[in-house]
Amino acid sequence: MPVVINLDVMMAKRKMSLGELSQKVGVTNVNLSILKNGKAKGVRFDTLEAICKALDCKPGDIIDIE
């Protein structure tokens, strides 16, 4: 069961760029890009919480399992 990251979908729904999200979350563009492209091995809960707060969503809106 692969984990799927839908960060780009939520960013598009909120009309938010990677740079804008990066500033709001306090994570570099590179690290967000790695997460967005599904290359990250994990994500810290505080980072996930900050992303969800910035995008006004829940973790399940970003992370899914196929």
TrEMBL record:
Source organism, top-level taxon: Bacteria
HTH cro/C1-type domain mapped to chain residues: 7-62
CDD domains listed in its UniProt record: HTH_XRE (cd00093)
InterPro entries for the chain: Cro/C1-type_HTH, Lambda_DNA-bd_dom_sf
GO function term, MF aspect, one: DNA binding
Pfam families in alphabetical order: HTH_26
UniProt name for this protein: Helix-turn-helix transcriptional regulator
Species in which this protein is naturally found: Mucilaginibacter mali
